[in-house]
Structure formats: C-alpha cells, structure tokens
Amino acid sequence: MEIDQIKSNMMISTCSPEVQMGIKWLEGYLINKKPSADEAESLFVLSKVKSPLVNEYKQHSKSDEFWPKDPWHLVELSNVMWCLAKLGLTNNIHFQEAYKEMKAMQTVEGWISGADPDHTGPLRILVLLEPESETTKNAVKYLLDNLEYFNGISELACGALALSELNYLLYKNKIRFIAEKIKSKQFKDGSWRYLSTSTASDIVDVIPTSWAVQAISISFGVNDESLCKAIKWLKTLQSDDGSWDGRSDFTAYALLALMAAGEGPKIPLEIVEFNYMVQEQKIRNQKPHFVHTSPIFKGRQIKDIHDKILEMLEEAEHEIRISSLYIDMLYEKLIDLKSEKPDLEIRIITRPVEDLKRARDVSRKKIAKSTLNILPEVNIKLIHEPIAHARLIIIDSKEALISSADLTRDSLIDEFNAGIWTKDPETVRKAIEFFDNMWNYAVKRQRKEE
Questions:
Q1: Which band of pLDDT confidence, cut at 50, 70 and 90, is reported for residue 12?
Q2: I need a surface site. Which of 1, 60, 182, 426 has the fewest CB within 10 A?
Q3: SS percent in the chain: helix, strand, coil, step 5
Q4: For the segment 376-391, what is each residue's pLDDT rounded down to a tens digit?
Q5: Where along the chain do the CATH 3.30.870.10 domains lie?
Q6: Mean of the pLDDT values across residues 126-140?
Q7: What's the whole-model pTM score?
C-alpha cells in the first residue's frame, strides 16, 4: 500500500464510524465514476482525510472533458465552484471563465444573483480569491445592509461562513446573529428544510441541515443542543452502505456536517499543542514593535532604529527598498551586502544633491554627497525625488520599518526619532506598493527632465 494511502487510512481511522463509512462509500463511488467538476464537493470532503483519489481527479481537471461546456453551470452551483477553488483549480481556463461570468453578474448595489446559495455563494468565492477587492467589499456590504431579507437556510449559513472566513473577529456579532436566526428555523426532528411548509423532512433536507450545522458550529460550538439534534437526525438517514440515499452530493453534505460537529479526523494533542505554539510565535513575530532613537531615555542613550535596521539588512535575500531623504550612515553596510550578494537588488530613493545644503554638519554633508556618487558605482540603484518625504526600509516582502529617521547620524544617534517595525504581510505589501509607486513616479519625472 502506498504511503499516501496509509496516511489517509490513519486519518480516517480517527473519525466517527458514520464518517468512516461515508468516506469509504464516497471513494468507492468516485473510483467507478467518470471524473467531473460536478464532484468537487465530494472531492473537498475527501481532501480533509488526504485521500489519494483527490490528486487523481485533479490530474483529470487538465482535460476539457472534466469541465461543463457552459461556464454558467458552475456559477449556478456556487458551492461546487468554491470547492474547486479550495482544491487549487483556479488557474484552469474553464474556472476562470465561470469566475468572470459570476463577477459580471454583480449589480451596482453589490448583489450577485443566479447562484445557489444566492449571493452568499458567490460572496464566499470572492472572499477566498480576492478578499480585499471592491467587488468583494460591495458584496459584503450588500449582505450586511440587507441581512433581514435573507431567509433561506443555505444563503444565511453560507453568508455566516463567508464572513467568518473574511474576518471572524470583525463580524463576530453578525455571524452570531445569523446563527441565531438559523437556529430559530429548526424543526422538531432536528432538520432544516428547503420548504418551511413541509409537513415532514425529506432526504433533500440533508443539504440545508448541513449548511445550518456548519454555521452554528462557528458561533455556538459542537455541543450546542440544536446542532446535536441535527447530527442525530442526519445519522438516522445514513444507509447501510455508508451513503445518504446512494448520492454523492447528499453524502458529501452530510459528512461536512458531521465533520463540523467534531466527528472528522482527530489530531493528537501533541500536534495541536505544537501548532498552537508555532501560531503564537508567528503572531508574536508579526506583532508591530515601537522603535526609537533617544539621546537620553531613562538615563541612557537608545539606538533602537539603528540596531533594527542593521538586523533587517542581515535578513535581506532578494531586495532592499529604502526611502531616506539623506544618507551619511550605514551606506558601508549596503556596499558590503552588495559585494557579498551580487544578486541582491538595492533601490534607494533620496532627495537631490542640492538639498544637502540644509545639512548642519559640514563633514556629514561631505559624506552624504560622496555617498550619492559611490552607491551607483557598486550597482546600487539610486534615484532622486524632490517631493519624497517618507522614511522607510523594506526587506524583501517580509518586513518593513516606517519611521521619522533618515540614514544619517542626526536621525540614528543624535535626535529624537520614532517608528514602527512590522512583519505583518498586509502592511508590508502596502508599503511595497507605496514605495514602488514613488519609485516609478521618480523614474518618469527623471526621464522627462532628460
């Protein structure tokens, strides 16, 4: 037996008996079925137990036969589309065509219709693929502004999941409100139904019940009374062969609900504790730090900014971006780094030479002037921008220091200066965008002057 199958079997063995039976049935069903994008929900479930079958299906996705002929088919089945994205198939041209059509359906108000679940299905895809885009922001705004008009269980639950995946802490109260609304619609037998007027539950109600369980588990946990009733109801519908009515879609939805209720793969406590420790370290490393230069602070001199810059420069692997009005310190370090790592790109934005007349110290002024001549000679890219006023240093795409300090003795030793150092990916990304825009502006201005 291959190692991947052994690992998968180990994960499956930690699941509840019902989940184990369902997984076994799904794998058997898919082995004998022609690979199709329509089975993305089943594949997503199997990916949670690392089934080797998932990679086999992903190989088939390279064929046109795997995909529906009409892209709109995927838009209508938005959860199938979301599962395809989770499986990493977003670069396929068939997926991209469907995604483009989905986005084109958005109205000025932000509403996206034609999908199941309506609006919140496409919203969840947008949250996954472009959480910061205007399209996503408008779709979120529409949901929040019109929450009282959303009444379908699938739409409500999918909306709660989308908000939690976008920013759980920010939307925590809205998510809980949605979960409460869903709980109020539960039937006595534990199910949620497609039709609120139904006199009895049906196998098709596995789908809204699954959505409800997933949403409720986020806010109320796996021991919630309504959730437990729903799980009990779902289990009564499982067939002896492990499926739900012999259908892969019903079986996949039922298994997602059971997994959301804690009946999926279990992780040993040691691994949980280790992952928690690593996550804490990651958060601690990304936490912004205040740094400063103070000639005197609690009885001593502080050179935090200077020391942090040296530390950052040592971490550089691919590119250093610097914006400093003047430079008369640490340029030797930059030259050494360029010598040690010839492929390291260093780009610096400074004020023009004429601006150095403002320098107070004549000797430092001479150093700064000669620095502007030396750096380009060692292939360090230097450009002058008269209206540059930002002081920042960015290392690769990993960390950034934004401060009031230039790379001068005045700023790094003699004056009071302060700044913030961060490894937060989003902040670093925005700092890079800012720097690159300023650089491109300076390049265009320089070309015009030439």
A1: very high
A2: 1
A3: 60, 10, 30
A4: 888 999 999 999 999 9
A5: 280-449
A6: 95
A7: 0.70
For residue 155, the tally of other CB atoms under 10 A from its CB is: 23
Among candidates 112, 118, 114, 66, which has minimal Cα distance to 87?
66
User: Over the stretch 260-271, which tens digit does the pLDDT of each residue have?
Assistant: 999 999 877 777
The tokens for 170 are 């920010």
**d(C-alpha 353, C-alpha 259), whole Å:** 65
The whole-angstrom separation of Cα 351 and Cα 243 is 70
Give residue 37's Cα distance to chain centre: 24
Q: Where in the chain is the domain with CATH 1.50.10.20?
A: 3-266
Helix (H) / strand (E) element for 442: namely helix 425-449
Closest CA to 415 of 240, 296, 266: 296
CATH architecture group of domain 3-266:
Alpha/alpha barrel (1.50)
- Name the 3-class secondary structure at 36: coil
Give DSSP secondary structure letters for 330-377. Answer: SHHHHHHHHHH-TT-EEEEEE--GGGGGG-S-HHHHHHHHHHHHHHHH
Counts of helices then strands in the chain (DSSP H, E) = 20, 8
408: nearest Cα among 364, 366, 351: 364
- Contact assessment for residue 66 and residue 93, using Cβ atoms and an 8 Å cutoff: no
* Residue 129 pLDDT > 80: yes
Chain CA centroid to CA 446, Å: 38
- The pairing of beta strand 392-395 with beta strand 289-297: unpaired
pLDDT in tens, 223-255: 999 999 999 999 999 999 999 999 999 999 999
Give the C-alpha separation, 50 to 13, whole Å.
12
| DSSP secondary structure letter of residue 389 | -
Partner residues linked to 392 by β-bridges: 323, 402
CATH label, 280-449, candidates 2.60.40.10, 3.40.50.1240, 3.30.470.10, 3.30.870.10: 3.30.870.10
Q: Dihedrals φ, ψ of 156, to 5°?
A: -60, -50
